[in-house]
Amino acid sequence: MKRLLAAALMVLPALAENPLSVALVSEAKAIAPGQTFMVGLHLRPPQGFHTYWKHPGIVGLATSVEWSLPPGFSAGEIQWPAPETVKMARYTAQGYRGETLLMVPVTAPPDLSKSRVELTARVSWMCCGSQCHPAAKVPFTITLPVADTREADPATRPLFEKFRAKFPAADPAWSTRFERIDDHFVLILKSNDPAVTRDVSELGTLRFFTADGQVDSDGGQTVTIGPGQTLRLELPVSASGPAAARGLPGVLHAEKSWRRDGGSADLELR
Predict the structure, then answer these.
(1) Strand order in the sheet with 36-44
(2) What's the rounded Cα separation, in Å, for the pair 246 and 172?
């Protein structure tokens, strides 16, 4: 915790003008009663700036949203693209160096009778570069027509498809186990089906991103290739992580896809 506070105090003061471009967009041109559609927070920081993942690491602040929806509507959780390493001052954190789209599923009630609906998101974020720019509960509104059937928006579909392809994916072809040894975790990955998984020697550089703060995002990570298509990672324990976690959730990024025939290079670990 002392290290986290020290890092926060080192960050330069925030400016009044926030450089982050934020837009609330919809994958649907028209929505329909009882159906689920995707909306997204389109975040575009300028070059040299970044925003943060659902767990930013030892410093930073995750983007969050509070919804004001018409009666009967419900919004799900943010669906996060895989993160990358970012720098706040001299500390390594977890976020997005370029644009990203944070998708949220929204469900309309089956008895919806209005011809148009208005959705409002109050968004909080931290955008950092040479200085940090926080924002709290900034409102963004989108108005959508209601039709008998949902209609996709050809203008926004490529954006949603681009970032949907960046979601991490769990894969039953890989099994994991972990244990804590003193000040680090040992994470073991093993291929359950070498015929479909990529040879571990071909995966390239690996990086683990912690989803709950158990691993110190600023600490060094070591990877060792073992026998029988196994990988051993040593990950530093964070002093500010949860004390009684039952798993080691996160995303393990590789330079190449985890399967021989392609697919995601970001393996979701639960």
Answers:
(1) 21-26, 36-44, 100-107, 74-75
(2) 19
Amino acid letter, residue 198:
R
The C-alpha atoms of residue 251 and residue 96 are separated, in whole angstroms, by: 14
Q: How far from 263 is each of 99, 168, 201, CA to CA, in Å?
A: 22, 10, 18
E strand residue ranges, 16-99 = 21-26, 28-30, 36-44, 51-52, 64-68, 74-75, 84-88, 91-96
**Contact indicator for 223, 231 with CB cutoff of 8 Å:** yes
Domains in the chain, CATH or no CATH each: 2-164 (2.60.40.10), 174-269 (2.60.40)
- Rounded CA-CA distance 254/265 in Å is 5
pTM of the full structure = 0.91
H or E element in which residue 5 lies: helix 2-10
**251 - beta bridge partners?**
209, 268
The Cα-based distances of 223 to 35, 47, 58, 200, 203 in angstroms read 45, 31, 21, 11, 11
- pLDDT tens for the chain, 270 residues long, are 434 433 443 344 444 478 999 999 999 999 999 999 999 999 999 999 999 999 999 999 999 999 999 999 999 999 999 999 999 999 999 999 999 999 999 999 999 999 999 999 999 999 999 899 999 999 999 999 999 999 999 999 999 999 999 999 999 999 999 999 999 999 999 999 999 999 999 999 999 999 999 999 999 999 999 999 999 999 999 998 887 778 999 999 999 999 999 999 999 999
Distances (CA, A) of 77 to 27, 200, 225, 251: 16, 33, 36, 18
